[in-house]
Design brief:
Chain lengths: ~325, ~100
């Protein structure tokens, strides 16, 4: 079997340290939000001028998890006692400044990146790192479009559902997720709520694959006598439980203003080389990413706020740059000529 | 042109695929279990359709799963679910009155 047909995968040589580094970078990522109550809904005796709330929100968190602090802010600072008493967060909902309804089950980072790519289609785009301005509505939620209750509990259910779907896509079964004890499953969500990297990854590490181990040089076995033959083929077969051995990487493509596209994303192509964005994007969005011979890309791919190089391997993205729900969310934006 | 390409992708796909409903536990089995569904539909529409076929009102508990494995986000499209999870030419949607795989 020829192993010289393609260059060694730089991504597959990722060390455990670099995997953890990228996972930590993703975890620590934040985006600036500027939240204001719809001025038409501000009760009469509110402290106008103070009703804008600036939040540096975690990319891997969710809007329902921001609600308790927002409620406290509005009660303590903005509303008078009467208005604060009748505040009912069950009727709250968010819109972007442009009138886009924001989903409770989308990670905040995805909401932000999707907004960035929507801006890329406008003639006069805003600054790349400008705060995302959200309008908070206090009543009459469009439940037929929101499809989800605003509660943290509903958000947790949706989150767990996404983890299971990702698990199923990777392996054709959810036994890794269902094999977790209830305490562990709850622990993943607690990690999100508390924003605790270790608590989250203590459990997530059991279901999220890592990139294949780095090719090892031929060397004598360790002195402990624990024999393990050195890998004869430095490329190695993909680690059976590793990122390059999955059935499909959980990936979604978000076009500005929709639709959201999901399809099977095998980690390796038919010739055994790693599946990259340069392979995947032209396959599904050929009008924006023409196959190289036909022209230059008209669009870019944003993953966790970063313009991903098209050589990025899907398996590596799935292992190191996925959101906390297991999904690699790729937001597609238009390149300015 | 990028904008034109985006408009092209926004067009609703009129293709229909087969959804196969499978009852779980005590859930009633329907006379007809195979239905053709337009792929641009959200999963929420499939749930509402199932409710109508079963004759169940909004409040009555109805849980749905794909391949007995997970519950999709209600705004996931049939197109996406079919591409990712169809087996033997259809998308299996299990339904039950209790939360089986919570």
């Amino acid at each position: 079997m020829s192993s010289y047909r393609h260059a060694p995968s730089a991504f597959a040589a990722a060390s455990p340290a670099s995997t953890t580094l990228f996972r930590r970078l993703v975890w620590e990522g934040t985006v600036p939000l500027e939240i204001r109550v719809d001025p038409k809904e501000l009760p009469a005796n509110s402290n106008r001028g103070l009703e804008v709330c600036f939040v540096q929100a975690s990319r891997v968190s969710y809007l329902p998890l921001l609600v308790p602090d927002l409620k406290r802010f509005l009660s303590d600072i903005v509303f008078d006692d009467e208005a604060a008493r009748v505040l009912n967060e069950e009727d709250w909902w968010f819109e972007s400044e442009e009138g886009t309804l924001l989903k409770w089950h989308w990670p905040i980072g995805l909401i932000y990146d999707n907004h960035t790519t929507m801006q890329s289609t406008k003639p006069a785009p805003t600054a790349p790192s400008a705060p995302l301005r959200l309008v908070l509505h206090l009543a009459s939620p469009p439940t037929d479009k929101l499809l989800l209750a605003p509660s943290a509990e509903a958000c947790k259910q949706a989150f767990m559902g996404q983890l299971k779907e990702a698990d199923f896509l990777r392996w054709g079964s959810t036994k890794r997720m269902t094999g977790l004890r209830k305490q562990e499953q709850d622990g993943i969500w607690e990690g999100i709520k508390e924003h605790n990297f270790d608590e989250y990854w203590r459990v997530a590490g059991k279901v999220t694959p890592t990139p294949a181990p780095a090719p090892r040089p031929v060397s004598p076995p360790p002195a402990s006598g624990h024999t393990r033959p050195p890998s004869a083929d430095p490329q190695g077969a993909p680690d059976r439980d590793g990122a390059y051995g999955v059935r499909s990487v959980p990936v979604r493509l978000y076009l500005p203003d929709g639709p959201v596209l999901q399809d099977l994303a095998p980690p390796l192509l038919e010739d055994g080389s790693p599946n990259t964005l340069a392979d995947f994007l032209p396959l599904h969005l050929s009008a924006l990413f023409p196959p190289t011979a036909a022209g230059r890309p008209r669009a870019f791919a944003l993953v966790q706020g970063v313009r991903a190089p098209l050589e990025a391997e899907l398996a590596w993205l799935g292992a190191c740059m996925a959101g906390a729900d297991g999904w690699v969310n790729v937001c597609i934006g238009l390149l300015r000529s | 042109d990028g904008l034109r390409a985006l408009d092209q992708y926004k067009k609703k796909d009129p293709t229909k695929v087969v959804v196969r409903f499978k009852a779980v536990g005590n859930a009633p089995i329907m006379k007809q279990n195979f239905f053709k569904v337009t792929v641009s539909n959200r999963f929420q529409a499939v749930i509402q359709f199932l409710r109508k076929e079963l004759g169940w009102k909004q409040g009555e508990p109805l849980y749905t799963y794909i391949n007995l494995a997970f519950s999709p986000a209600p705004d996931d499209t049939v197109a996406n679910l079919y591409r990712s999870f169809a087996t033997e030419g259809h998308l299996i949607v299990n339904y039950s009155t209790t939360q089986a795989w919570g």
